[in-house]
Design a protein that fits this description.
The complex is a heterodimer of chains A (197) and B (507).
Chain A lengths: L3 H29 L18 E10 L4 E10 L4 H17 L13 E7 L3 E6 L1 H5 L5 H18 L5 E6 L17 E2 H11 L3
Parallel strand pairs in A: 4-5
Antiparallel strand pairs in A: 1-2, 3-4, 5-6
Helix pairs in contact in A: 2-4, 4-5
Chain B lengths: L1 H4 L8 H28 L6 E5 L4 E5 L1 E3 L2 E5 H5 L5 E6 L2 E6 L2 E6 L4 E4 L2 E4 L5 E3 L2 E5 L3 H9 L3 E4 L4 E4 L6 E6 L5 E6 L6 E5 L2 E6 L11 E3 L5 E9 L2 E8 L3 E6 L4 E6 L1 H6 L20 H5 L9 E2 L13 E5 L16 H18 L4 E3 L9 H10 L4 E7 L6 E6 L11 E2 L9 H17 L4 E6 L10 E7 L12 H17 L1 H5 L3
Classes of the chains: A alpha+beta (197), B alpha+beta (507).
Chain lengths: 197, 507
């Protein structure tokens, strides 16, 4: 004979397990509804909320320059989220049909991590790097545009590291070095050089 | 007593007994996982058979069935002539250049032109493909092809006809001595390094062993070389105590391995002759062979201002960027950046040498060099200037790049990080870029100078400039135009010759 208290304990445990399973199943169904997982396009900045005046440094392939361009974008309050939305706004320009500096479909910023003191880590997705055009100038324009836009709008960034899919990579598309940290002062100087054809 | 007697029939509940079993099952499951994953990770690369013939050199996958190696006969013969095959039940018929063969699945006897031939194991049919044992190829193929066939069964190499490439190796006199390989046909091997060794791997060339598979040279720097074959490849391993610079000549028939001058000095370092900055970057670089030798360099670069006056063997180092698997930009469906940079580099070398400037090209074939290896090879030769060549389809004209370095990276005492090794030379590099720009502008070329985070510019301990050539107009064909390449090569060489004194005076 199995002791009664054991039977009761097992029955209670089974009920808990069943209850948890039903709850998990409902949660799973709820979570699956709003997310379109097959949509690989980068998220647009939030369309609602107060907008802010920002300066994006946009690459133009034809003369091979960086141009400052004002934009009004709604941005979240968090510093890290602002950095991500800022770069997504820049990428949205590059993904347009009439892009001055085309990047591959599906290119996106996965995350931006701001690590004190003064380090920003930009994590690009694999599509960004894998579909990027190869060439010293074209890759440099991309890197300078990302870093200069970030440092001009998010104060306190001194160094930037670029990752691809969370991992280190030697170069963006065979040329621009991603193995080391970028010094923001040096990139700002480079941006000045790149603003003149 | 009651407590002890009552549970006697009920104690030792199944749960208590099952616990060790479940632990054992869990342990067995994890052990199984570990075994399977270690097996998968340690799995040997797939076996291949390399075929060398006058018509084509190619390789095929080798399949193992019942402990015998097999290849698909149709795929093997296909590049060698007109071939077709037909399956009729268990009978498989193949016709190659009017020679007919008939094989029966599960039998080890075939008929070729009506004559019986024994196979070393049974003929197999898989998905309509006829598989023959590799060991039987040396008897089967002469019947189909009507000529001699040599099979290296253990290493998976098959030579059809007299196609073998022979080589000799000898040490050329000089200080330091150079190892010169002479091949009977042009070769284009890949060269890689590991500490103390340099590997020359032949994937497409029918290179065969010399009389002795081990060659000794009696030199402290290059002691010996060994020849080996495996899985469809031939490899020469050179044992050395110094980084070696490979260069090809005589249309790919000669390969010269030159020890880096600094490496020979670094083998006996003294306070007055510290090792070079080039002798210590990351793993796999050629410099590691020097870095791993006893008493060699520290893991950081010496400030260039403290360099000894090392002998300068080459005034200029020209680096055709990319090569091997690193194709660079695909300029068109048929044009790769790595090929155009090589052509441009050859012109530039010629132009520099015409002006009396000794020049080392970092690659003169489709070799794959890492950026660390490029920097090491440049640094160990102590050139006055390093020139990297790139080609791009986007934009117009010529772009000149100097290293993009962090601010304040110039004065950090005697030692400096590898990533900022260029800092003391940046001003000279910018001067050289300005000089090249001025000369190109004289030729009406559109020029621009900018900094770039482009390796290995920041690792080079000499004036270092990268040149990216784009078409002057919109026609990509201009990139391969001899006139356009000549114009650029000539202008760059003229600029370097004009600033020879300034460049030569760099630390």
């Amino acid at each position: 004979m199995i002791p009664r208290h054991l039977v009761i304990a097992v029955a209670v445990l089974l009920m808990i397990v069943l209850g948890m399973a039903v709850y998990a199943w409902q949660m799973r169904g709820r979570a699956a509804v709003p997310v379109a997982t097959s949509d690989a396009r980068p998220l647009a900045p939030p369309s609602a909320g107060p907008t802010e005046q920002l300066t994006l440094f946009v690459a133009y392939d034809d003369p091979g320059i960086l141009r400052a361009q004002s934009a009004r974008i709604p941005l979240p309050a968090g510093r890290q989220q602002r950095a991500e939305e800022l770069l997504r706004a820049l990428l949205a320009l590059y993904l347009e049909k009439s892009s001055p500096h085309a990047i591959g479909v599906g290119a996106d910023v996965r995350s931006v991590y701001l690590v004190d003191p003064g380090l920003a880590v930009i994590d690009l997705n694999a599509a960004f790097a894998d579909t990027h055009r190869s060439g010293v100038l074209v890759e440099e324009l991309t890197v300078a545009s990302l870093i200069h836009t970030l440092s001009a709008n998010i104060p306190g960034i001194l160094k930037v590291k670029i990752l691809v899919d969370g991992k280190e990579r030697d170069s963006l598309a065979g040329h621009a070095d991603l193995s080391d940290f970028y010094d923001v002062s040096a990139v700002n100087q480079l941006a000045i050089e790149l603003s003149a054809p | 007593m009651r407590w002890s007697s009552y549970p006697s029939s009920h104690e030792a509940p199944p749960v208590v007994r099952r616990e060790p079993r479940s632990r054992i099952a869990g342990f067995l499951f994890i052990a199984g996982l570990v075994l399977v994953s270690s097996f998968l990770l340690s799995a040997a690369p797939p076996k291949r058979l390399s075929v060398y013939s006058v018509a084509a050199n190619y390789s095929l996958p080798v399949m193992q069935r019942a402990n015998h190696d097999y290849v698909a006969l149709l795929e093997l013969l296909d590049p060698l002539g007109r071939v077709n095959a037909k399956l009729d039940g268990r009978r498989w018929r193949i016709r190659c250049n009017n020679v007919e063969g008939e094989f029966i699945a599960g039998q080890n006897r075939a008929r070729i032109q009506g004559r019986a031939t024994d196979l070393s194991s049974n003929f197999l049919i898989e998905n309509g493909r006829g598989l023959v044992p590799v060991a039987s190829l040396s008897s089967l193929l002469p019947r189909f092809l009507g000529g001699p066939v040599t099979l290296h069964e253990d290493s998976g190499r098959l030579f059809i006809g007299s196609v073998a490439t022979h080589f000799t190796a000898s040490l050329a006199a000089g200080t330091p001595p150079r190892l010169v390989f002479n091949f009977s046909s042009p070769v284009s091997p890949s060269v890689s390094t590991e500490p103390g060794k340099l590997h020359i791997t032949f994937t497409r060339e029918p290179v065969v062993a010399p009389a002795s598979s081990t060659l000794t040279f009696g030199s402290n720097i290059i002691s010996s070389a060994t020849y080996s074959e495996s899985n469809g490849l031939a490899e020469i391993t050179v044992n050395t105590t110094a980084p070696l610079t490979p260069s090809f000549g005589n249309n790919g028939r000669t390969l010269t391995l030159t020890p880096a001058s600094a490496a020979s000095q670094a083998s006996s370092p003294t306070p007055s002759s510290p090792p070079s900055a080039a002798a210590r970057p990351a793993a796999n670089s050629a410099a590691n062979s020097a870095a791993n030798s006893p008493g060699n360099s520290p893991p950081s670069a010496l400030a260039p201002s403290s360099y000894p006056s090392a002998p300068r063997r080459y005034f200029a180092v020209v680096d055709p960027s990319h090569g091997g698997d690193d194709r660079g930009e695909a300029l068109s469906s048929t044009l790769l950046e790595k090929d155009v940079t090589l052509a441009l580099a050859r012109r530039l070398r010629q132009e520099l040498e015409n002006r009396g400037i000794s020049t080392l090209m970092l690659r003169d074939s489709d070799a794959n060099l890492s950026s660390d290896q490029r920097a090491v090879l440049a640094n160990t030769n102590h050139p006055a200037i390093y020139i990297a060549l790139h080609v791009a389809s986007g934009g117009h004209g010529v772009r000149l790049y100097t290293a993009l370095l962090p601010y304040g990276s110039g004065d950090n005492g005697l030692f400096r990080s590898w990533s900022n090794a260029q800092s003391s030379f940046l001003a000279v590099s910018q001067g050289a870029a300005a000089s090249i720009s001025a000369e190109l502008q004289k030729q009406q070329a559109s020029v621009r100078i900018v900094a770039a985070a482009l390796r290995p510019l920041n690792n080079v301990t000499a004036a270092a400039v990268a040149i990216e050539v784009a078409p002057a107009g919109s026609d990509l064909a201009q990139l391969t135009s001899p006139d356009y390449q000549q114009l650029i090569a000539s202008a760059v060489a003229t600029a370097i010759a004009a600033t020879r004194d300034k460049l030569g005076a760099t630390p």
